[in-house]
Design goal:
The chain is an alpha/beta fold. Helices cover 39% and strands 15% of the residues. The radius of gyration is 16 Å and the shape is globular.
């Protein structure tokens, strides 16, 4: 397996968490737009390696535009044929915990699209690590149709109740960047990664959202 751990002098790499199950077509369209935008900006997409749901829409769109896409999938899911067969690279790891760590290790920045318990689990892990200072990667939420509003409200309540107050100096804005527009979200996330900014190959297409 070629090591893809953070190195200097290479393109921006963003890990995307999202669901692989059946989804509202509007979520699928938003995922496809993000995949295209990342490819247009020469951003290397890293994600959970699936071929269905938002995962599939995201990867297919990026690949169609000539983007580089790395998937990381547990052996159990790969065995039952959930893995995407057309990726630039597919890493098969032993379990879900290893996948979560690998997805984070490969990332300069992290984005989350709508998803279920797996996506929530991944977000909770990277937020907890950020809160305790064990990583500094920016984390963004693509809040399509207000999907993440309840989660944002929960975090605000946790802050108000004092459950995040013991993390010295931590602000809610440090945990997440939130936007319903993928162009704005990428523009907000990229400068915080410490990597050189990326420009779209075709600016005329960059304003399409959902």
């Amino acid at each position: 397996m070629r090591d893809l751990t953070r190195t200097a002098g290479r393109r921006l790499r963003i890990t995307v968490f999202c669901g692989a199950g059946p989804a509202d077509p509007r979520y699928l369209r938003a995922a496809a737009v993000l995949g295209r935008l990342m490819a247009e900006r020469d951003i290397h997409l890293v994600y959970g390696g699936g071929r269905t749901g938002l995962m599939g829409a995201l990867a297919n769109s990026a690949l169609a535009e000539g983007g580089e896409v790395t998937g990381v999938i547990p052996q159990a899911l790969h065995t039952v044929g959930i893995g995407h067969p057309g990726l630039s690279r597919l890493e098969v790891v032993v379990d879900m915990a290893t996948r979560k760590k690998r997805l984070t290790d490969l990332a300069d920045g992290i984005l989350a699209l709508p998803g279920g318990l797996g996506t929530l689990d991944e977000l909770a892990c990277v937020w907890a690590a950020a809160a305790h200072g064990t990583h500094t990667r920016p984390v963004g939420l693509l809040n399509t149709l207000g999907y993440y509003n309840p989660l944002i409200n929960f975090l605000r309540k946790a802050v108000a109740a004092g459950f995040l107050a013991h993390h010295h100096g931590l602000r809610l804005d440090d945990l997440m960047l939130v936007d319903d527009d993928p162009v704005r979200l990428l523009h907000s996330l990229a400068p915080r990664t410490g990597c050189p900014d990326t420009a779209p190959r075709e600016l005329a297409n960059a304003q399409e959202t959902t």
